[in-house]
Amino acid sequence: MAITDILSAKDIESALSSCQADDSFNYKSFFSTVGLSSKTPDQIKKVFGILDQDKSGFIEEDELQLFLKNFSSSARVLTSAETKAFLAAGDTDGDGKIGVEEFQSLVKA
Fold first, then answer.
1. What tens-digit pLDDT sequence spans the chain (109 residues)?
2. Which of 27, 59, 74, 91 is most enclosed, with most CB atoms within 10 A?
């Protein structure tokens, strides 16, 4: 499954263009612009499955750093500060990674 099966290419392009500069990534505005906030829990779970590159059932810090690349191979990697802030926002149980329920909550925040 491709991410464009769930999200429109136009929305992805718009969301990526809003965070091209280092340290400009804001997960809330990204999720809203890309259209993920308005998707069903099942659709959000499918996007989670795409972001979970190693299929561990969690999005770890290294996968979060490459978050934008899941939407476009030409997108930048997140800075260390962006990655840590993103992880801190999503990791509600403190295990150092984001599970599917945590991701769903983060998207709907």
1. 899 999 999 999 999 999 999 999 999 999 999 999 999 999 999 999 999 999 999 999 999 999 999 999 999 999 999 999 999 999 999 999 999 999 999 999 8
2. 59
Q: pTM to 2 decimals?
A: 0.93
Binding site membership for Ca(2+): which residues?
Answer: 52, 54, 56, 58, 63, 91, 93, 95, 97, 102
Give the CATH number, domain containing residue 66: 1.10.238.10
DSSP 99: E
For the annotated binding site, the residues are: 52, 54, 56, 58, 63, 91, 93, 95, 97, 102
Left (φ > 0), alpha (ψ -120 to 50) or beta: where does 14 sit? alpha
Tell me if 2 is assigned to some domain.
Answer: no
Domain enclosing residue 69, as ranges: 8-108
Number of folded domains that form the chain: 1
Directed axis angle between helix 100-108 and helix 27-34, to 10°?
Answer: 80
